[in-house]
């Protein structure tokens, strides 16, 4: 496993070197055998890319490349480059929703600089790394993301967490995020109380991530 990249150019060079390589081949090279395509291998592919690029953040509350403050997102796409699913950003502290501010939020920090590594799945199920790209939100993009953040957490903070479906938010959405169905957390309830609910996380919609994979300055509807 290589050491952490010294700077963004070195990180991007490592990521570009993956383009066109098969996931399974890289897994064998790095001693991380990856099984057939499927939901149960998704996390393993992300771990494989982390190892190949020298990410050190792990499961800690930091960026994947802490010294560079860059987050890594391995994103499954079809042969047209269309993401197959929404992209997890970070967990949400529901009880703090009424005090949360976009400018100081962890979701904003996580999205400030992102290295996207597409993983294309062919008709035969073989997975190949696509062209990686570094992205930071434009002023227009950040304005939309901030608006989504404020709308979503505004509803949560007012006691309406159960009414915030994945349809709320233009590009950023709130969805359940837990290891299994039995996990519970606390959230603001009606009239100042609290209620028990499933944990939630922020996700980026596939139409947004797909657009920025084609054009980093995109502003899709």
| Beta-strand content | 15-25%
Q: How would you name the CATH homologous superfamily? A: DNA mismatch repair MutH/Restriction endonuclease, type II
Helicity range of the residues? 25-40%
Unreliable stretches covering 5 or more consecutive residues:
none
Which overall shape is indicated by the principal axes computed on the Cα atoms? Answer: globular
Question: Number of DSSP helices?
Answer: 6
Radius of gyration over alpha carbons?
18 Å
CATH structural architecture? 3-Layer(aba) Sandwich
Largest sheet: 4 strands, mixed
CATH class: Alpha Beta
CA-CA gap between termini: 40 Å
Number of domains: 1
Query: Structural class of the secondary elements?
Result: alpha+beta
SSE run: HHHEEHEEEHEEEEH
Q: How many strands?
A: 9
CATH topology: ECO RV Endonuclease, Chain A
Q: Overall mean pLDDT score? A: 93
Structure characterization notes:
This protein has 6 helices and 9 strands. The mean pLDDT is 93. It is of the alpha+beta class. The protein is globular, with a radius of gyration of 18 Å. Strands 1, 3, 4 and 5 form a 4-stranded mixed beta sheet that branches. A 3-stranded antiparallel beta sheet has the order 2-9-6. 29% of the residues lie in helices and 20% in strands. 30% of the residues are buried. Strand 3 (114-121) and strand 4 (127-129) form a beta hairpin. It has one domain (8-214): ECO RV Endonuclease, Chain A (3-Layer(aba) Sandwich), CATH 3.40.600.
